[in-house]
Design brief:
The structure is a single chain. The protein is an alpha+beta fold. It has 13 helices and 28 strands. The strands form four sheets. Strands 15, 16, 17, 18, 19, 20, 21, 22, 23, 24, 25, 26, 27 and 28 form a 14-stranded mixed beta sheet that branches. The protein has a ten-stranded mixed beta sheet with strand order 1-2-4-3-5-6-9-10-13-14, sandwiched between helices. A two-stranded antiparallel sheet has the order 7-8. Helix 11 links the parallel strand 9 and strand 10. The chain is globular, with a radius of gyration of 25 Å.
């Protein structure tokens, strides 16, 4: 045993020495010719014996300890890019530190995205807080995975952690790799991108034809979802691990704060997000749960018409072919450091933070604010999905129908020529026409006044099916007076998890069930007088996510052989959707 320990130590020493020698030499040279003290070969040992690789930068000649700005990431990018962000922290009067996830860069450990961050972030902050250049205060910022790691650090908050600034934060198991318990495909290729080597596998990450083609090969083959990597020809151990957890079970729960964990979070939070961020329900989940379990914790949100990547740079002039309002674009780095100065240096509060929730109203070119997400709206428009026609679509009626009837939809899961729920994704945001080959569409009367659709829609679908489960989609559009379809928001979810995302409750065949939903994408959009709202309901059956054949078995194991008789779904006319508005 002793020999094994000695050998392990020697291996670790040689790895760290050999990998860091050139980096250290370059860093010293850079440090000698610049205004910065750069330590780029730091190794941090965790309580359970893991090794984390880190870089620290501060202004040369600084002798007084300062607050530390920490980025904790799985993305080992071009060294110059990471060094640049750390120099920005130093230029703002902080010490900049970036810590890479276990297994990345100079860490000899195995790479397992998500799994170690709640413990490792604590150990990284603990190490930082004890360094002579740290004054005992640490703030964190960053986007996507880096946003997730900040919330992971809050599962067991370290006393030195004083604030977090997450951009478009992911919540594993909620948004990606599954949304409302449906596994969706983007994280399949991402696993190779971050997991194939100590840095980033840009060859795999940039090989879009490979992975887009893989989706359609799987779709056409009728194979089980779990066979994706067999079809691809390269094992994907991360994907295989994830799909073994279709419920939001302890595997996902332990990665970040869950339920009463939020009651322990007392530090100020500033979050950034976008209306068209794919994982928006992840990011806003954190804020909603924090408000629920720790309502006195000061938590702020800045949100606008941004996508996942656009949010992290303060927005883009064009998103999904839509030209955003000029006032929507922000200087996210400036606001971030204003926030750090406010919390860590007793500076002025960022002027943009008029209230807890700060949002840009699409189409109005103005910012508004509210004390909470729930207070963004002051009314709901409730529409029942009835079976009478209003021109070419069915009617979305503000009046509950006097009698209960239904619309019948048949979906053959053995049919690979036709797919459904094809338009739920907002790409592009404005469409000239919609797919009319599947689902049902319900349109309102023209609006009699201008108003703002403001918040996250919700509703109840009353359905009966001849199987034990089904994946559903609901999409909301504004239909403008000139006939264009402006994508507002959407929902996809597995019916058997609607009541409890931790436990599957199969449906009783040929029995009316109520599927309540609320975990939808938040939007703020000024809707003009004369526009109409369009509600689309459909069964989710396409190549871009897991297929649920409805047998009640694990959907990852079902194949086209399980299709058998087509799904018959009755959509009852007392189903309704509630759209939040600000009048």
């Amino acid at each position: 045993m002793r020999n094994k320990i000695i050998i392990s130590f020697l291996i670790l020493f040689l790895i760290s020495f050999n990998l860091s020698a050139q980096q250290t030499k370059a860093a010293k040279l850079n440090s000698d010719t610049s205004d910065y003290d750069i330590q780029d070969s730091i190794l941090i040992k965790t309580r359970d014996g893991g090794i984390l690789s880190a870089i620290m930068i501060r202004k040369k000649g600084e002798t007084n300890p300062k607050p530390v700005i920490l980025q904790y990431t799985i993305y080992v990018r071009d060294k110059g890019r990471d060094i640049k962000t750390l120099k920005e922290s130093a230029d703002h009067g902080y010490v900049g530190v970036i810590v890479y996830s276990r297994g990345k860069r100079f860490s000899p450990d195995e790479i397992n995205p998500y799994e170690n961050e709640s413990n490792d972030t604590y150990d990284a902050i603990d190490w930082i807080s004890k360094q002579k250049w740290c004054n005992g205060s640490v703030g964190m910022f960053g986007g996507s995975y880096n946003g997730f790691t900040q919330w992971a650090a809050c599962k067991t908050p370290h006393p030195a952690l004083k604030t977090i600034v997450p951009y478009v934060a992911n919540r594993p198991g909620m948004g990606l790799p599954m949304e409302n318990n449906i596994f969706i495909n983007p994280n399949y290729e991402w696993a190779f991108y971050v997991g194939n080597n100590k840095f980033l596998d840009t060859v795999a990450g940039n090989n879009r034809p490979r992975f887009r083609g893989l989706q359609f090969k799987w779709w056409e083959s009728g194979a089980a979802y779990k066979k994706l990597d067999s079809i691809d020809g390269e094992p994907n151990r991360w994907f295989q691990k994830w799909i073994k957890h279709p419920s939001f079970d302890n595997y996902w729960q332990k990665m970040a704060p869950y339920k009463t964990d939020f009651s322990k979070i007392k530090i100020p939070v500033l979050a950034f997000d976008g209306y068209y961020n794919d994982s928006q329900n992840s990011s806003l989940y954190y804020l909603r749960e924090l408000q629920k379990y720790s309502p006195k914790t000061p938590a702020y949100l800045i949100i606008g018409p941004y996508g996942h990547f656009g949010t992290q740079i303060g927005g883009e002039a064009i998103i999904n072919d839509y030209k955003v309002d000029a006032n929507a674009l922000i200087d996210i780095k400036k606001i971030t450091y204003q926030w750090f100065d406010y919390i860590l240096k007793n500076g002025a509060k960022p002027e943009v933070l008029k209230d807890k929730i700060n949002y840009e109203v699409m189409g109005a070119n103005e910012w508004k604010s509210a004390p909470s997400i729930e207070k963004m709206h002051n009314d709901f428009l409730t529409f029942y999905l009835i079976d009478t026609k209003l021109e070419t679509f069915y009617r979305a009626s503000s009046k509950k129908p006097d009698r209960k009837t239904f619309l019948l939809q048949k979906v053959d899961f053995a049919d690979r020529q036709n797919s459904s729920n094809n338009d739920y994704y907002p790409g592009p945001i404005i469409k000239k026409e919609l797919d009319t080959t599947s689902g049902f569409k319900f349109i309102t009367e023209p609006l009699k006044e201008q108003l703002i659709v403001n918040g996250s829609f919700l509703g109840e679908l009353k359905i009966s099916i001849n199987k034990k489960d089904v994946d559903l989609g609901v999409t909301i559009y504004e239909v403008t007076p000139n006939g264009e379809y402006f994508h507002l928001s959407y929902y996809i979810g597995r019916a058997s998890y609607a009541k409890d995302m931790e436990k599957r409750n199969l449906l009783e065949p040929n029995t009316i069930e109520t599927i309540a939903f609320a975990n939808t994408h938040l939007i703020s959009k000024q809707v003009s007088k004369g526009s109409r709202l369009l509600i689309v309901i459909d069964v989710n059956k396409n190549a871009f996510s897991q297929l649920n054949y409805g047998t009640g078995k694990d959907a990852s194991e079902e194949t086209i052989q399980d299709a058998k008789e087509p799904l018959q779904i009755k959509w009852y006319t007392d189903s309704f959707v509630k759209i939040p508005v600000l009048r």
